[in-house]
Write a structure and sequence with these properties.
By secondary structure, the chain is mainly alpha-helical. The protein is built from 14 helices and 2 strands; from the N terminus they run ααααααββαααααααα.
Length: about 375
């Protein structure tokens, strides 16, 4: 029997070592590779003070998104820390240029709050200043609507402002309900999509939501954080609209040479689908996102006229890819329970093999004794 025990231990050791080697030798998945390349682009294109773009004073929302994408990957990232310090200083500076509309400070506040970096803000009046954009109709103003180009309440300003205030826990129930009601007032009751304003469906110059798909996805993601669920018929209609958009623009056109350019919309849609547990749709959206990655690792959304990679599209693509759990077939690591189950199975198999070998050897020995 000592020989048998030794044999079983050898078999177990060999089987386990082979299994561990198989696990450790696996290459990165397409999702992991896409995230790594996007984050490298954000690393390489950050300005020394943490901003992005050649004229950073106009692109604080780029830095807010980039900071969050980098932080999701590594909360101790020096690049993320630099970006957060810079956007917080922009919030604290009343003349920084972000306080002409609600969406930019809302996006910054969301990024700071979601990453636990609200402590970088040094002025409590930042919250008051953002809340002051809310109008009597519940919406937050900022979009300059033609022909007067006077700021009006819009879906993108309301969504971003509400998102930031919710995560910062700086909005009361009444204001939150009014903002949500305003968003629902902009929903098309026929197809479930959300419009930019009561007079305009969308505007491709609105960088934080340049098309109906991104407007709808953004509104749905924010409404989820405002405690609305898919059981609400208005939410389900919005998700139905996104699913139709996914089928038309993403799922059936994952070939980068034959697809529409709504990568930003796909990123927000992936986040919204993920929030409402629409896993298959979220995976399909991320498949499209990966197909649209540029050779330099960045992303750009053609719907707003972008032709080169930029920090906004790259960051939101990276955020979506990091937030959506990879599909099982994409090579995601096995859960711990499944891993122990496999190991137990291997051990059991080794024991069975050992017993069989022992019985064979015993019978052989007995036969040899009888022959003597």
């Amino acid at each position: 029997m000592p020989a048998l025990k030794g044999y079983v231990l050898v078999v177990i050791s060999l089987l386990l070592s082979g299994y561990v080697t198989t696990l450790s030798s696996g290459s990165s998945t397409p999702v992991q590779a896409a995230i790594a390349n996007a984050l490298r682009w954000l690393d390489a294109n950050q300005n020394p003070e943490g901003s992005y773009g050649s004229t950073p004073q106009y692109y604080q929302h780029w830095a807010a998104a980039a900071a969050y994408a980098l932080w999701l990957n590594n909360s101790s990232s020096s690049k993320a820390s630099r970006a957060y310090s810079w956007i917080a200083s922009q919030m604290d500076n009343s003349s920084s240029g972000i306080w002409y509309e609600a969406d930019i400070p809302g996006a910054i506040l969301y990024s700071l709050a979601a990453s636990g970096n609200l402590g970088l803000l040094h002025r409590s009046s930042d919250y008051t200043a953002l809340r002051d954009f809310q109008k009597s109709n519940g919406g937050f103003a900022g979009f300059a609507e033609p022909p007067t180009y006077a700021p009006v309440a819009s879906a993108v300003d309301t969504s971003m402002a509400l998102w930031g205030l919710i995560h910062a826990r700086a909005v009361n129930a009444s204001s939150q309900e009014k903002a949500a009601s305003f968003l629902f007032s902009l929903q098309n009751t026929t197809d479930g999509s959300f419009a930019l304003t009561s007079n305009m469906v969308y505007n491709n110059l609105e960088s934080l939501a340049p098309d109906p798909i991104s407007l709808t996805a953004l509104a749905l993601a924010v409404l989820k954080d405002a405690a609305y669920t898919a059981a609400d018929s208005r939410i389900s209609r919005g998700l139905d609209y996104l699913e139709r958009a996914l089928s038309a623009s993403f799922k059936s056109r994952v070939d980068a040479s034959n697809s529409t350019g709504h990568v930003y919309a796909a990123s927000l849609a992936a986040i919204a689908f993920n929030d409402y547990s629409k896993s298959a749709d979220a995976y399909a959206s991320t498949t499209f996102i990966i197909a649209k990655q540029s050779a330099d690792g960045g992303f750009h959304d053609e719907s707003r006229g972008s032709v080169v990679s930029n920090a906004l599209d790259t960051a939101w693509a990276a955020i979506a890819l990091q937030q959506v759990t990879p599909a099982p077939e994409s090579g995601a690591p096995l859960p711990t329970v499944a891993l122990f189950g496999i190991i137990a199975g291997i051990v059991g198999l080794a024991v069975i093999v050992g017993v069989v070998v022992y019985l064979v050897q015993r019978n052989k020995t007995q036969t040899q004794v009888k022959s003597l």
